[in-house]
Structures
1.
Amino acid sequence: MTTIAELDLPEIDLTGGALAGADYHRQLAALVTPRQHAWLARSPLAVIVLDREAGEFFLRSRATAFPGREIADLFGVTAGPLREQIDANILNQQGDRHRRLRALVGPAFTPRAADKWRPAMRGFLAGLWPAVEAAGRCDFVTAVARPYPSLTIAAVLGAPQADAARLQDWSGWVQRQFDIAALGSQVAEMERAVTEVYGYVEELLARRRAEPGEDLITALLSAEQAGDRLSHAECVNLVLNVIAGGIDTTQAQLSHAMRLFAAHPAQWAALRERPELLGRALDEVLRSEPITPFTARICVQQVEHRGVVFPAGTIVAVCAERANREVPGGEDFDITAERDGRLLTFGAGPHFCLGANLARAELEEALTFLAPRMPDLAADGPVVLGNTEGIYGVDSLPLRWG
Ligand code: HEM
């Protein structure tokens, strides 16, 4: 047995916002050269796990947890509204408590439940499209990718559509708790957003209590009213997790999808000509550009894997980007390739993304809507990428079509 500290591993700095675009893929690929322990690398705060089997092992292990509190401590976020939200976040819950929360909210996120929102999704796309149709060009992030997921989440929650822009803004800020650079510099903005969104959710719950509907909040309220199954604070926090986790994620993934297709016109043409490729096309987007390239775990007790000892307290960054590319031709974007469909994009194990079915439905509806309407899709200027810490977003994506 060797302890992780004894290994001579290549280093890469995942923090600082510099890692994005083709260079980010190249730098990560360069870490997986033939060498001993090629499944491991080091970054200033964490050990990086580069392959799928080991990534799944850490995500599924009962001896690990999401290190939200520990990372907040490192940055001095030890009290205040942001810290309260981090403490209450479902990602930072474990064991029975986590299982109970998932069981209560799970039925609202099955594939069938997600399908129920497809007509609404089509309606939102049809509503956004006329503003850009005639011009044949747009900044895709502003025109579609940003408003569309927040309209969808508003519908899922039973919130007014007029509130979608506010939900989008809050989601962006609250999700920065997963971005190390932001934890070091933007805590005040995040605290402002957390305070506002808590107030908003309380109001929304009060309104739904008075006027029940067919939405997620009404379902959660009935669990709250059924006795001790769901406390009020848990109910508020679940709604907040859906607002935070359900908007800028899908926004980022849809933006990357269209960026990839604009850069690979033959792939876009294939999807336009063969709509039956939709499922594979979406898997290929999720595989090749996961918007959560890294997620983290802390070893709550000593963990051993493949003869390496990870002492309690070790933080592990699981690299979905490398895990997903560990297939033949894995660096290529090819929607016609036969793949095994196993991805780490939505995580694995008990914290597997709650909204994966909803996100897939949203992305499928968007690609189905856009493909026939955007022939000869191409870039119309430089794309502005976010960074790969936290959620890997796209700030601007100028596109044109024929
Ligand atoms: C393409 C879009 C999305 C991607 C790539 C994504 C990715 C992820 C990943 C990787 C995790 C697991 C993190 C970990 O284990 O460390 C996760 C968890 C989660 N996601 Fe998503 N997500 C997406 C969309 C959504 C949507 C639409 C919702 C709305 C409900 C959502 C809500 C959540 C929640 C609440 C969790 C925490 C689950 C738990 O702790 O049990 N996500 N997501």
2.
Amino acid sequence: MRNTPNDPENAGSTLSIIVPTFREAANIAPLAERIDAALSGTGIEWELLLVDDDSGDGSEAVVTELARRLPVRMVVRREPPRDLSLAVIEGIRQCRFDRLVVMDADLSHPPESIVDLLAALDEGCDMVIGSRYAPGGMVDRSWGLYRVLNSRLATWLARPLVGYADPMSGFFATRRSALPDLPTVRPMGYKIALDLVVRGRLRVREVPIEFRDRSVGLSKMNWRQQVRFLRHLSRLYNYKFGSMARVPFFSAVGASGLAVDLACYLGLQWAGVEHRLARFLSFWPAAGWNWALNRGLTFSERARQPHLGQLARFMASSTVGLGVNVGSYALLTSYVEPFDRHRLLAFFLGVGLGSLVNFLAADLYVYKGRPEPGR
Ligand SMILES: Nc1nc2c(ncn2[C@@H]2O[C@H](COP(=O)(O)OP(=O)(O)O)[C@@H](O)[C@H]2O)c(=O)[nH]1
Ligand SMILES: [Mg+2]
């Protein structure tokens, strides 16, 4: 079921602009002024709806003052958790008009591009993304290598989910009536547009924008948000591609566990532990690492179970997996002559079989459980 448009008759000439805010007092007035300038003369009746997470920095007073001359209002969410996407969803619930634009408060998204987004939307699609990576778009010139690589990597990870260039963008135009039922949307952290597009199977177009870094206030993006993004991605992959989408996540976790294993193995020897004992000991922290990451990432939407029991089950099934890995190697090299000549083949086949056993055990036994509602 789709959402009921708030104002279907007048959709073409009306617009709700939804902006999530947290501690943006200094940006609100410049944003509203620039929107006003960009839309004046277009004949569009608009409202600016700021959804604030109880910033307590004077934002509300700024809005009260602005509201005397511009169509600006603020909804304040006082219930935790503080969350950008939940704020946007609240905005979509409370906005007056069907046609809407979502953008950031910090002027990273140029208000002057709103008209371009609307023109593309009116040509017929469900959502228009203000895109930094479509031809003609750009990011701020001041971006350093780390930021460029970080953004590109995140984009690359999300690309299989959607067919457009900038799945990480938070600047978009859409119609409320084109969106999936809001209770089914469960974005985590920052990527609300991505969630809406994937779960709503929206038809998307892109319009290039020039993204500018914020000049006032602080970014709320941090490593915690980046971890949540990975978890969000894993859920969307699962939603779109089914359970087999867990395999790459499980494999990536396994590879990182191998690095932990190796580090402990070498570290223990460095500390004077005998190499066979080091080999035996290093397995456990690595398995613990894998368990935690698979719990938080690969199977994150499965209902939570008590830590210790689940960890014990994971250790047990990892031990079985290890047995299959090493055992198949031993059998193949002892009894199947070609494998004795090409032992690396037996090594990799063993790793593959062991991993398969581990994966099936994780899916059907360790992390067994119904998905939490809506995930
Ligand atoms: N309501 C609300 N808005 C948020 C929250 N976190 C960030 N925002 C707003 O979301 C927009 C983008 O956040 P920003 O910190 O600029 O992220 P960045 O552009 O990725 O660095 C800004 O308008 C922020 O004020 C939050 O927890 N709640
Ligand atoms: Mg920003």
